[in-house]
Amino acid sequence: MRPDYGVLRLYPGGAHVTEVVSTEADLHQLASNLARNVRPAASVPLSGGSPYSMSEQRIDIKLYKKLVASISIRDHLMMRGLSAILKADMLQVHPEFAEEANTILYIAMEVAFQLTLRHLKDSGKANPTALDAGDFLYLTFPNHLPGRKFFEDYYEDRIKTFHPHSRLGTFAFPPLLASHAYGLRAGLIAMFQYLITKNRSYTLWD
Known about the structure:
Number of helices: 8
Largest sheet: 2 strands, antiparallel
Number of domains: 2
Helix content: 40-55%
Strand order of the largest sheet: 1-2
Distance between the termini: 49 Å
Number of strands: 4
Strand content: under 5%
Structural class: mainly alpha
């Protein structure tokens, strides 16, 4: 807050305060006004949102336990990728941070690429390349998602995101498609799940 601006901005409430608070009564009135006008990150029943509904999907407990047991906190590369996906999901709750969420997913993609190269090396492939990583993805997943060009397909989007000015143009904001973010996230989850558990499935849901 800068007093010379004369405005106190509250986030994520979407409100700002310009009134002078000089008494306790003013403070209570201000709090009451903010409570009525605040824009919550998610509309929950307690704050007037719709009641919760139960999903018919259930977590695959066996796969979940295998996943948790197989993650090593000593594997710093793996932890970096997993934390990036979690942070991206947290940011996606706020639509105004969709660009930042996508940016973090590209960090997870780079981790997935390096983990794939590491897996190929451990499997006996000397000096694996991006082409080898693509072939591995194509052969590992039966319906080819993520496919052979998974890393290549998102390369230009990554350039647009990290480089405001490049051979692809100059952008005030990266021209990204929401479908690309969903596809990238789904592909990354499938890859991380396989690299951790060797299971070829896409979610923890049955």
